[in-house]
Amino acid sequence: MIDDLPPLRDVIATHDLAAKKSLGQNFLLDLNLTAKIARLAGDLTAADVLEIGPGPGGLTRGLLAEGARKVLAIEKDPRCMPALAEIAAAYPDRLQAINGDALTVNPLEHLSQPIKIAANLPYNVGTELLVRWLTPPEWPPFWESLTLMFQREVAQRIVAAPGSKTYGRLALLAQWRTDAKIVMDLPPEAFSPPPKVNSAVVHLTALPAPRYPADAGTLNKVVAAAFNQRRKMLRSALKSVSPDIEDHLIAAGIKPTERAEQVGLEAFCALARQLHKN
Fold it and tell me: What whole-number distance in Å separates Cα of residue 64 and Cα of residue 45?
């Protein structure tokens, strides 16, 4: 056991915490696994950790047992708050649990730098949260690293290379500003209830500066337009971005007849610079 608190199955039974599909909940019950995920987040002893969707607190306990200076756990489901209060009592002054929506709570009001984010993200808001964390108004962001559980299919989209079916906007956003890798795979039976898909943990480390220079707004616009119509050649898919798109593509070293999935990050950044300049 990682601490003296009861096993998670008992916690769930005591507090009547059957997972709710409407909240995208799938609880990870094996405390050895949650401790392993906490270790994948790196050395926590000098960091505050933001956790989204702690549920009954399996990963929360792992993060605290691994020495996190402070954990801020944001949980939308009020039923989970008593279980989190028990963990807070076992780790005095190190856990703050907030009953609220992660999309609206400002974590910076409660945390001190350096900050890491570690979470078994609720399936229904996982991608939206990741995109927000990857596209802040200023870079570097408030966080040093993200250690996040996703459906495996989403994890593959984050680390995808050009030419693959899963390559798209998410891969470009993630790889432009972070080092992203899949660090762990989990089968459905690791969860309660078991989801219909495999899951994976992705670790993303913020780069001090983006991999290639580009204006974030322009790059985002170009990438969104290109992958919105991924079957079309870029000269058609990007018509809405600029009437002279063909000239800009050539100037950036991209064949106008290429499709979005054939173009790498460096070339997209070159195109964004070209457009921004004009």
Answer: 9
109: left (phi over 0), alpha (psi -120 to 50) or beta: alpha
Cα 4 to Cα 213: distance, rounded to the nearest angstrom: 50
The neighbour count for residue 272, using CB atoms within 10 Å, is 26
Are residues 66 and 101 located together in one domain of the fold? yes
134: domain CATH number is 3.40.50.150
Boundary residue ending a domain (179, 206, 233): 206
The C-alpha atoms of residue 265 and residue 201 are separated, in whole angstroms, by 23
Closest CA to 5 of 95, 84, 96, 80: 84
Could you tell me if 241 and 220 lie in one domain? yes
Cα angle, residue 77 at apex, residues 73 and 81 outer, rounded to 5°? 60
Q: What is the mean pLDDT of each run of 10 residues along the chain (278 residues)?
A: 90 90 84 96 98 96 98 97 98 98 96 97 90 95 98 97 96 98 96 91 98 96 96 97 97 98 98 95
Structural domain contains residue 199: yes
Domain shared by 24 and 59, yes or no:
yes
**What is the domain range of residue 241?**
216-277
Number of H helices, E strands in the chain: 11, 9
